[in-house]
TrEMBL record:
Protein name: Amidohydrolase family protein
Source species, domain of life: Bacteria
SUPFAM superfamilies reported for this sequence: Composite domain of metallo-dependent hydrolases (SSF51338), Metallo-dependent hydrolases (SSF51556)
Domain spans labelled Amidohydrolase-related: 60-408
Chain segments annotated as coiled-coil in the UniProt record: none
Pfam families: Amidohydro_1
Native species: Nocardiopsis suaedae
Length: 421
C-alpha cells in the first residue's frame, strides 16, 4: 500500500524541468500536504519534525507522466464484444489496467471513450490504485461510424448508459447535442466525436468523413457552454481540417494530415495526439487480442504514415501530446511510445508532450506536468537522464525507481538506493 501523506524532502536529485528543458544535479524538492512546496539547489532546508528525507543519490526527479489517450475499460481489441459483457467485468479489467499505468510512471491519464464518473471516483477515493483519471464518457458517433461497433448483421447499438461500450450512436444535430449534454451531466472532462473512419470499427472506411457539420457544431457549442472542449478522432487531412474549422480543439491520431492541416493546427492553437504504439501492436498482435479481420486489414493504411506525420507536425511547431490508444492485453506496451517518438523528435520535445504540453491540453497547467512550487506532487524518480535518452522511459520496470502521486509514494523499486546507470 502507499505511504500515508507526509512532508517529504527529496535531496541529491537531478531535477528535470521539462518546460525549461533542463536537468539540474544537486537539487532538492520539498513536498508538503500533497503539493510541491519548494525546490532549490545546494543545502536543503530543514523539513521539520516528523518529515521524511530521501537522498536520491543523483537520480533524476521529474514530473509524473501524462497519457492523453487511454482506454482502460477496453478488455479486448474487439470493441463490439464489449456490448455483450458485464460492466463489472470491464471495471475489474480497468482497475488492473490503471494500476499498471501508475506503476509505469503515469500519474495522470485521459480516457477518451469508455470510462465514466464511477471509475474516476473509484480512483479518487482510493478504491483503485491508479493515476488521476480524466474521462469523457462515451464517444459520439453517427450510425455506421467509428463509434458504431456492430457488424453488418447486428441491429442493437448498445447505446445505453449501462453498456460498457465505448460509443454512443447519434444521428442529427439534436441527438448529438443531447448526447453531449448527457456526458457533460455526468462530469465529463471533455467530449469526443468521431470525425473519420477508424481501424477498430467494422463497417467504415479510414478515408471517410463522419458527423455532419451541424452535428459537430452542436457538440462544440455544448462543450464550450460548459467550459469544456471537444476532441475528435480523425485520420485524413480532409476530416482533420473540417473538425478544426468547426471548433474541435484536439485531434486524436492524425496519421494522414498534410500541410494545410499543419497550418490549421497553428492558426487554431489546437493540439494533436498521435498514438503510434497502438498501430505497432495491432500489426504485431492484434489478431490474438481480438481484432477482427476486417479491422486488421486497415492497420497498414495508418501505420506507415504515422511517424512521418509526427515528424512534420513537430517541425511545424504543432502542440503535440503523448497518447497510446492501446486495447486489451496490448496496454502492457504503453511505455514503448517513448521509443517510437524518439525516432522523430528530440528527447526534450517528447518529454514535454508527456508532461507540460499534455497538462495544457488537459487544463491542468500549473498542477500537473511540472516541478513548479504549488503543483500537485505527482513525480517519478528515474535512473539516468531522460533528456539525453528518453527511451529510458520505455522500460519503466528497469528505470523508473519510484512513483509519487499526490505526495504519496505509490511505487517503490528502491527509493533512496544508489542511482543506477
Amino acid at each position: 500500500m502507499a505511504d500515508r501523506p507526509r512532508t517529504t524532502l527529496f535531496t541529491g536529485a537531478a531535477l528535470l524541468d521539462p518546460e525549461a528543458g533542463t536537468r539540474t544535479p544537486g537539487s532538492w524538492l520539498l513536498v508538503d500536504e500533497g503539493r510541491i512546496a519548494a525546490t532549490g539547489q545546494g543545502r536543503a532546508p530543514d523539513p521539520g519534525e516528523g518529515a521524511r528525507t530521501v537522498d536520491l543519490a543523483g537520480a533524476t526527479l521529474m514530473p509524473g507522466l501524462i497519457d492523453a489517450h487511454v482506454h482502460p475499460t477496453a478488455f479486448s481489441a474487439d470493441l463490439g464484444a464489449a456490448m455483450d459483457h458485464s460492466p463489472s467485468y470491464a471495471t475489474a479489467f480497468a482497475a488492473r489496467s490503471l494500476t499498471a499505468m501508475l506503476h509505469r510512471g503515469f500519474t495522470t491519464v485521459r480516457d477518451v471513450a469508455g470510462g465514466d464518473w464511477g471509475l474516476a471516483q473509484a480512483v479518487e477515493e482510493g478504491l483503485i490504485d491508479g493515476p488521476r483519471l480524466l474521462f469523457g464518457g462515451k464517444a459520439l458517433s453517427q450510425t455506421g461510424g467509428h463509434g458504431d461497433f456492430r457488424g453488418p448483421g447486428r441491429q442493437d447499438t448498445g447505446s445505453h448508459g449501462c453498456c460498457p461500450s465505448t460509443g454512443l450512436v447519434c444521428d442529427g444535430a439534436t441527438a448529438f447535442r443531447r448526447a453531449a449534454r448527457e456526458q457533460l451531466r455526468t462530469g465529463a472532462h471533455h467530449i469526443k466525436i468521431m470525425l473519420s473512419g477508424g481501424v477498430a470499427s467494422p463497417t467504415d472506411r479510414i478515408d471517410s468523413t463522419q458527423s455532419a457539420e451541424e452535428e459537430i457544431r452542436a457538440v462544440v457549442e455544448e462543450a464550450e457552454a460548459a467550459n469544456r472542449y471537444v476532441t475528435g478522432h480523425a485520420y485524413t487531412a480532409r476530416a482533420v481540417n473540417r473538425g478544426l474549422r468547426l471548433g474541435v480543439r484536439c485531434i486524436e491520431h492524425g496519421n494522414l494530415i498534410d500541410d494545410t492541416s499543419l497550418e490549421l493546427f497553428l492558426e487554431r492553437r489546437a493540439f494533436l495526439v498521435p498514438t503510434l504504439v497502438t498501430y505497432q501492436e495491432l500489426a504485431r498482435q492484434g489478431a490474438r487480442n481480438g481484432l477482427p479481420p476486417e479491422s486488421r486489414a486497415k492497420v497498414s493504411t495508418v501505420l506507415d504514415r504515422g511517424l512521418e506525420a509526427l515528424r512534420r507536425a513537430h517541425e511545424a511547431g504543432v502542440d503535440l501530446v503523448f497518447g497510446t490508444d492501446l486495447l486489451g492485453g496490448m496496454q502492457a506496451h504503453q511505455s514503448e511510445e517513448f521509443a517510437i517518438r524518439a525516432q522523430a523528435q528530440p528527447a526534450a520535445a517528447v518529454l514535454r508532450s508527456a508532461t507540460s504540453t499534455a497538462a495544457r491540453l488537459l487544463n491542468l497547467e500549473g498542477r500537473a506536468g511540472t516541478v513548479r512550487a504549488g503543483a500537485d506532487a505527482d513525480l517519478i524518480v528515474v535512473d539516468g537522464d531522460p533528456l539525453a535518452d528518453v527511451t529510458l522511459l520505455a522500460e519503466p520496470e528497469e528505470n523508473v525507481r519510484a512513483v509519487v502521486r499526490g505526495g504519496e509514494v505509490r511505487v517503490d523499486r528502491g527509493l533512496g538506493a544508489p542511482a543506477r546507470g
